[in-house]
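S2.1 Query sequence (Ribosomal RNA small subunit methyltransferase G)
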Amino acid sequence: MNEEEQLREGIKSLGLVVTDEQIRKLLHFADLVREGNRWVHLVSRRDLRRIVSKHILESLQIVPYLPEGASCADIGSGAGFPGIPVKIIRPDIKMTLYERKKKKALFLIEMIKTLELSGIRVEAQSFPHQQDMIDYLLIRNIDDRRMIKSLSNLGYFLIAKQHTCQLWKKTPLLRSESLFPLIGQHTS
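Output structure tokens follow.
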């Protein structure tokens, strides 16, 4: 099975309906990650062949949980996972990619231009500030307890985890200390 067939089959299994243009953009995105990996370490070398199965499809698993017009932030975006695949499939979502490493942030900016995506921006910092208007945080492989505490102090809590993608929602009702039992439940 080639990458396009694998992508179409995976998207179908997630219950998502996409256009041929969205498939084209996702495949172009995969190619850009492979190409960019030569000058910026974006994914491990062994993952270069598994960008569709390991990264894109895992990223898309959170799409059904996002309401229309949600404001999202991809924390530690790196190569753009999960933010860019989510944005390609859900153009209605406002997306900010947070990446503290300057080389990766510049790569993300170029990728957004190349893919002609709108309603998406890059911030060269670790994560949002209190005043940022963000409904959901999209995070992959977070295990830094200090970052979890910082995010919880901003009022976010985990509402879904699919394999390595995590979706956090902002709520004014949840106290930060109540986040930790929830995290332990979902990451063990």
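The domain at 3-187 is CATH 3.40.50.150 (Rossmann fold). Residues 20-36 form the longest helix (17 residues).
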